[in-house]
Amino acid sequence: MALPGSNRVWCMSALGIVFIVTGAVLPIVISGIDRAVINDLMTLDPSSQMFSSWQDPPIPLYMKFYFYNVMNKEEILKGGKPQVVQIGPYTYREHMPRENVTWNDNNTVTYVQPQTYIFDRSLSVGDENDTFTSINLPLVTLSYMMKDLPGLVQKMMEGMILASKEELFIELSVKDLLWGYPEPLFKLLQPLVGKSIIPSDHFGFLMGRNNSGVGTFTVLTGADDKAKLNMVDVWAGKKKLDFWNSHEANMINGTDGTMYHPFAQRDEIKYIFTPDMCRSMPYIYEKDVEYKGITLWHFPLAKYAYANGTDYPPNQGFCTPNCHPSGLLDVSACRSGAPMQLSNPHFYDGDPILAESIGGLNPSRKLHENYMDLEPLMGMPWRFAERLQLNIFVEKMENIKQTGDIRTLYFPVLWFEESVVVTDDIVAMYTDGFIIPGIVCGILKYVFVAVGGVLVISVVVILIRRRRSKKIVRVTNPNIQTKTGHSEKTPLLS
């Protein structure tokens, strides 16, 4: 049996309102579901879907090395301006699984992360045996450590340098400088000063680092507070560092850079704790960028990160004890007193005097900036590039003639880029899991609102038409009875 007309109209009206309300509420419901799914996913827990990827990251990680080939060593020893030519990249594939994973009762997890480097010839300009001329890091380091000692001691040092046939510049291969080579000066000095001061008679930038880590990490799981997900709580047994001159400088802030808490905010400072730099480095939001149709947030390294204490007073704590020109981080305090400074490649974003003192440098934001492109929902860096240059402070020393008449300057040795780009598989999973449902939800929202609106408007139109038709009937029907029961044509008196 069909519903009466009035019931049908009210049914259409109710249905229209339901459609409109559904369209308005649907995005909120879907957003709530997404939030619940992401919160469940972004937790460090053995049962989490994220755990296996956290324990053994599937995203390819590469480290590219670039070396500065010294072109005019004779002129430099006579006081001339150094001229260098960059060679590279020499690329290594990194594997960094988290091992010895221990879950603690205070919502933290402890692990070590050994690093394995595998040379990739296809992504390199040459072989590991390619050679170049570099400044002699061991000689400069030992000479620097001797500079405040009596002249007689310095003369003894000069004699040992002569006996070992060391010079200020040395011919090395890529493999030598990275993984180690016999160092004659160390061999002579080790029996005199002991292995506690000179532990090996070899020297290499990454010597002993292949298949080993940089200390034990304890990080927060985010189980009780998602904002603390993956934040470093303890490193190498330390809650804070002891290299620097202020509480703020010694703080261990942020994560290891592999993941942050979900639902990021643009005004957050993203810190990466880097053991090789002996500090946490700040990254600040700059702009939105797109990668494969996905909106990411571009966080470059903060401009003040390498500023000295004069240009940026909060960095005074990193002066050990004196401040160097802006653009340098003196890490001698955490490198056994070696006069080493870290910087952006080619002294990008540093005091102009640094790049001007070395011929052949060309600072470039595109090539030398540190940055991460963050996917804000899950808090994962989809593109990341850490670029770091190793420099050594060098000056003429009167009692060590091997230093010649070299200028006082910060000499660049090498720089490297550690980079990650998310795989197409991860982009596809993200698109299928969040982007497409979001688009469908957006379409359905408008469809529901539109259908509901049509139904409500239709009801309004029907009601208006009915009202009008009643009025027309009342005016034109001659048999309409008055309240007294007479028609309009019936005489009042008969």
Blueprint (SSEs and pairs):
Layout lengths: L4 H37 L9 H5 L5 E10 L2 H5 L6 E12 L3 E5 L4 E5 L3 E4 L11 E5 L1 H10 L4 H13 L5 E5 H6 L1 E2 L1 H10 L8 E2 L13 E4 L11 E4 L33 E6 L4 E6 L2 E5 L2 E7 L28 E2 L9 E4 L8 H5 L8 H4 L2 E5 L4 E15 L14 E13 L2 H53 L18
Antiparallel strand pairs: 1-2, 1-20, 2-5, 3-4, 4-10, 6-7, 8-9, 10-11, 12-13, 14-15, 15-18, 16-17, 17-19, 18-19, 19-20
Helix pairs in contact: 1-10
What is the H/E string?
Answer: HHEHEEEEEHHEHEHEEEEEEEEEHHEEEH
User: Taking Cα atoms only, what radius of gyration do you get, to the nearest Å?
Assistant: 36 Å
What helical percentage do the residues reach?
25-40%
Q: Approximately how much beta-strand content do the residues carry?
A: 15-25%
Which stretches of 5+ consecutive residues score pLDDT under 50?
A: none
**Overall 3D geometry?**
elongated
Largest sheet: 10 strands, antiparallel
SS content category? alpha+beta
Per DSSP E runs of 2 or more residues, the count of β-strands stands at 20
Please characterize this protein's 3D structure.
The chain is α+β, with helices and mostly antiparallel strands and 494 residues long. It has helices at 5-41, 51-55, 73-77, 137-146, 151-163, 174-179, 184-193, 352-356, 365-368, 424-476, and strands spanning 61-70, 84-95, 99-103, 108-112, 116-119, 131-135, 169-173, 181-182, 202-203, 217-220, 232-235, 269-274, 279-284, 287-291, 294-300, 329-330, 340-343, 371-375, 380-394, 409-421. Strands 1, 2, 5, 14, 15, 16, 17, 18, 19 and 20 form a ten-stranded antiparallel β-sheet that branches. Strands 3-4-10-11 form a four-stranded antiparallel β-sheet, with no helix packed on it. Strands 6-7 form a two-stranded antiparallel sheet. A hairpin with a 4-residue loop joins strand 18 (371-375) and strand 19 (380-394). Helix 1 (5-41) runs antiparallel to helix 10. The longest helix is centred in the last third of the chain and has 53 residues, at 424-476. The protein is elongated and about 120 Å long. The two termini are 49 Å apart. The model has no long low-confidence stretch (mean pLDDT 85).
